[in-house]
Amino acid sequence: MHPDQQRDFTEFVTSRSDSLIRLAYVLTNDQHAAEDLLQTALAKTAAHWRRIRENPEAYVRRVMYHEQVGRWRSPRWGRERVLQEPPDRGVADRTGEIETRVTLAEALRALPVRKRAVLVLRYYEDLPESEVAKIMGCSVGTVRSQTHEAVARLRRLAGESTNLEGLR
């Protein structure tokens, strides 16, 4: 990589890593897997930097999405992780909040991969429909219909008792 390109890439990584790691975490639901996903996406981005340097964030997001879909399809995805020692710290009673999170997480996991990705990109990343369409390689109309169907199914799966007012 040319020194100017190396500098541009380094600046991009420095300025956008926080946002990209949050997206990776939402896609993976695991900090270590999120770091691996982002590292893989940045390595692929670096290899194509010369070609994509005009809009690198969209490229990284697209790579992360496709990489994670591949991992979801892998038979090893979703296995339990063994901890050496259980955590010893107690926490305050947040049962209601935890129940809502668990219900919502289960409902999200029950959604098909594309519908889950649409919700993450639209509502967690707060991307416009046109950007989501570019990342997912589909039309804006498809994003709209997938979003509508995903929210409706999420509400059915999570039940009306879960507060999903933010998802419209």
What secondary-structure arrangement, pairings included, does this model have?
Layout lengths: L2 H26 L2 H17 L1 H4 L3 H18 L21 H16 L2 H12 L4 H8 L3 H19 L10
Helix pairs in contact: 1-2, 1-4, 2-4, 4-7, 5-8, 6-8, 7-8
Notes on the structure:
It is built from eight helices and no strands. By secondary structure, it is mostly helical. It has two domains: 9-78; 100-167, Winged helix-like DNA-binding domain superfamily/Winged helix DNA-binding domain (Arc Repressor Mutant, subunit A). Helix 4 (56-73) packs across helix 7 (129-136) and helix 5 packs across helix 8 (140-158). Belongs to the sigma-70 factor family. ECF subfamily. GO terms for molecular function: DNA binding; sigma factor activity. InterPro entries: RNA_pol_sigma-70-like, RNA_pol_sigma-70_dom, RNA_pol_sigma-E_actinobac, RNA_pol_sigma70_r2, RNA_pol_sigma70_r4_t2, RNA_pol_sigma_r2, RNA_pol_sigma_r3/r4-like, WH-like_DNA-bd_sf.
| Mean of all residue-level pLDDT scores | 84
Number of helices: 8
Strand tally: 0
State the helical fraction: over 70%
Order of helices and strands: HHHHHHHH
- Domain module count: 2
Give the N-terminus to C-terminus distance in angstroms: 44 Å
User: What is the 3D form?
Assistant: globular
Strand content: under 5%
Query: Biggest sheet, open or closed, and with what strands and sense?
Result: none
The SS-based structural class is mainly alpha
Report Rg: 18 Å
Low-confidence stretches: none
Domain RNA polymerase sigma factor 70 region 4 type: 103-154
Pfam family, one: Sigma70_r2
Keywords: DNA-binding, Sigma factor, Transcription, Transcription regulation
GO molecular function: DNA binding; sigma factor activity
